[in-house]
Amino acid sequence: MKLSLTLHQISKAYQSVPVIQGFSLSLTAPDICCLMAPSGTGKTTLFRILMGLEVPDSGSFTIEALDDASKSRRTLKPEECRISAVFQEDRLIEHMTPLENAALTLPGPMDRAFLYREFSRLLPEECLDRPVSTLSGGMRRRCALLRALLAPFDLLVLDEPFTGLDEASKKEAIRCLLEKTDGRLVLIATHNPEDAGLLGGHIYSFDSFTFPEPDL
User: Fold this and answer.
1) Which domain holds residue 159?
2) Fewer Cβ in 10 A, N or C end of the chain?
3) Three-state DSSP class for residue 128
4) Mean pLDDT over residues 156-169, rounded?
5) Whole-model pTM?
6) Could you tell me if residue 70 is inside a domain?
7) Alpha-carbon distance values, 13 to 17, 42, 187, 205 (Å)
8) For residues 174 and 178, what is the distance between their CA atoms, to the nearest angstrom?
9) Tally of structural domains, the chain
């Protein structure tokens, strides 16, 4: 499903402190949208609004499915758009292995051979059967990214997905990301212009986001 995402004058404040002020943006798949701004300037709040975890104080957004053959478009209900995400926190189940964490987001019974093959691309094989609580920060981040990439999705939302990765791990993670997201719409929050360059993404500035986000 090819998506179009339109945000119109989104604003959000917490306890009268503005976080997002009148932000508008229009995107159409395939696209990798890199939302560029320093940490703490509203990107996470915007993602939470898109995922239905926050409600904007004003403004709206629309997600449409596009049919290239008929040139038609249809507005999607929230439950019709599958969104996969990597949050700033890894949000892994600590006592489960990387494979078990990923299996929770997949339909049907766990396909261990498939998951083992996919995770071996980014993680050492010796850690695949260990609880994620025993893994390093960089390994946990790669686990969270793979879980999001393997889940069925129409829209991918990634909040600083390469935090804690060394250069070699980051490049391999990006190669995997580009393969798994080909043709779909991807939103990535980052403050690193090098990430946008490696992704071949379009950079969108958050100039209208001028207030720090509160700790939630």
Assistant:
1) 31-52+82-205
2) C
3) coil
4) 94
5) 0.90
6) no
7) 5, 10, 22, 20
8) 6
9) 1
